[in-house]
Amino acid sequence: MTKAETVTIADVAKRAGVAKSTVSRIINDIPGVKPVTRNKVMKAIEELGFKPNLIARSLKTNMKQQIALAIDDIRNPFYPELAWAVEQVAKEHGYRLVLLNHYGNASEELSILRRMHEMHIDGIIFLSISYPQQLKQYINHASVPVCLIGKLGDDVNADMVYLTKPEGSLAMEHLVRIGCTNIAYAGGPKHMHQGTRYASYEQGLSVNFMPFKEANVFIGSDFSMQTGIQAADYLAALPQLPDGVYAANDLVAIGLIQRLMEKGIRVPEDVAVVGVDDISWSMIARPRVTSVSNLAGETGRIAAELLFKRIKEGQSTSLSQVQLEPRIIVRESSVKVTMA
Amino acid sequence: MTKAETVTIADVAKRAGVAKSTVSRIINDIPGVKPVTRNKVMKAIEELGFKPNLIARSLKTNMKQQIALAIDDIRNPFYPELAWAVEQVAKEHGYRLVLLNHYGNASEELSILRRMHEMHIDGIIFLSISYPQQLKQYINHASVPVCLIGKLGDDVNADMVYLTKPEGSLAMEHLVRIGCTNIAYAGGPKHMHQGTRYASYEQGLSVNFMPFKEANVFIGSDFSMQTGIQAADYLAALPQLPDGVYAANDLVAIGLIQRLMEKGIRVPEDVAVVGVDDISWSMIARPRVTSVSNLAGETGRIAAELLFKRIKEGQSTSLSQVQLEPRIIVRESSVKVTMA
DNA sequence: ATGAAAGCGCTAACAG
DNA sequence: CTGTTAGCGCTTTCAT
């Protein structure tokens, strides 16, 4: 790293024998500069090794060329795909991506929203896990446009992209269709994921006139493989083993399946298992895991595009809500035959 | 998003009946301000809803409170752990993380280094895949401190963190120790990963007085599962099936194993397989994959700490090179018995 | 087509 | 302890 003696547009101007404003025009490709002056200046820029200071420019233009993506934890295998898609779109717009992990922690989530103004960003894509009370209010007071991933009512000043229906409803539907009659649930705290992962369970049962049994519900402390393992231990010890399990996500499903099999319980023969997220692991694990895809890459791409539209157009255009259709990918963990 | 009418420290100063500098002192927690004035100012800040403009501050202080992490592709399962660790350390220092994907593409890599100055960053953690010719030169001319992940000679003006020895050497060592005598290689282009992944193969053979056979080498177009699958097809068609495969990374190993088993070839009984990276998938796949860990989280944490040290101390302290000891995690893909 | 000058919002000497 | 005064490096009227 060479401590470049910060050459400014003033230095360039002097060297080229022109005014600062002329240099500015040239580095910003503003038309109406005589070729001969342009050449003089270009030469000076070259000789001095001038690099525009974008901070100074930002101060003037109030554009920061950065957006942020706030998620709970990039290590959750669902996010790299999302983050990648967002970075792609950002790059196309000449923007950079700031990555923020909030751990699904309510106070961290709000803290990000509260401190947004100090983040050098022109907009933010926000994915909430804990959906704190004050979320709407904070978003409505945000200093830059917000694009939400996930649904949050119509009285929020943010574009949104979310799924047409809870992923869980597809999972339950599938389990019923393949003939399960005693379906269990395994996941993290009920209120997480805005409560929808769990809610789909109760709803799925009632829609199909199946009785709800408290014993068939396992609630772990998070949505990790570890929770799946604990769920397997719990469910296996039940007087009556369920014949299907709706796992709140694929990590839980994978842990669950693994432990069930260690215990000699066959998947899907004895118990069919369906997860949510369709992370790549699901097709690597054995048996491959049936899962509901929430379209991570697609979601990221669309969210980023909505955000840039908003950044460009400001409040002038009305808010968008883009809905994506979740899909179930049927694999070995829920059917007897082997599938691709 | 409320279009706050940008209230500045001048507004606050006027409202509180003090000078701008006093306001500045207060928002920067500079001691030596009478409590009563502080209160007046705090009140004004509150009433006006003043938020400091960090861009303006940056222009003055030349500190941007951001670092960047440049990697090839966040979707490679090795990186989320790394990125997460880096973001943790950054957050501890009150910094944000800019994520840059360069796709292991030489020109993209150089482009990042060249355009660093416009990224609002105080430093960058750089991981090269393609190691272009001009890399050193670009790094030495960088406008902010660079911390390299991976080794790149002593004449580079950058702190570095890298492994004490190529991961591949451990992989080869292990295969030999468990009795393999006809070892194959499967990976992406030889020159990638600075050529070390492949080099370890030839070296491992020669160290153990094993003949090199061109036929035992499969070079795919990248380091994906797809390459592993192609490698399996290729190796299975060989007149003599190898009894061990050193895969350049876990994705290749997983694809390879999966396809071998589809073909009725048993792993590890017929062919033992070892991968590199120890991504979490390796313990989820069946059989679980033996892998050499390159300590992603540890690497990220240390790189970030070196970078912050450098940002704080400038050129004053000498360059550091931290070496980490890779470890092999033996799992089912290379031993007959089941292991945890 | 180019120059002069006035800031963007903040920090940091230097006075007082 | 607080106020005054210069800028940081750039963009952008407004003149010329």
Estimated share of beta-strand residues of chain A? 15-25%
CATH topology of the largest domain in chain A: Rossmann fold
Give the low-confidence spans of chain A.
none
What would you call the quaternary organization? homodimer
Fraction of residues of chain A in helices?
40-55%
In the CATH hierarchy, what is the superfamily of the largest domain in chain A?
Response regulator
Distance between the amino and carboxyl termini of chain A: 52 Å
Radius of gyration of chain A: 26 Å
On the 0 to 100 scale, the average pLDDT of chain A is 92
CATH level-two architecture of the largest domain in chain A: 3-Layer(aba) Sandwich
- Estimate the global geometry of chain A from the Cα principal axes: elongated
In short:
The structure is a homodimer of 340-residue chains. Helix content of chain A is 40%, strand content 16%.
What report would you give on this structure?
Chain A has 13 helices and 12 strands. By secondary structure, chain A is an alpha/beta fold. In chain A, the strands form 2 sheets. Chain A has a 6-stranded parallel beta sheet, covered by helices on one side. A 6-stranded mixed beta sheet of chain A has the order 7-6-8-9-10-12, with helices on both faces. In chain A, strand 6 (183-187), helix 9 (196-207) and strand 7 (217-219) form a beta-alpha-beta unit. In chain A, helix 1 crosses helix 3 (35-48). Chain A is elongated and about 90 Å long. Strand 2 (96-101) of chain A pairs antiparallel with strand 2 (96-101) of chain B. The first copy, chain A, binds a DNA duplex (16 and 16 nucleotides) through residues 6, 8-10, 18-25, 27-28, 32-34, 37, 52-62.
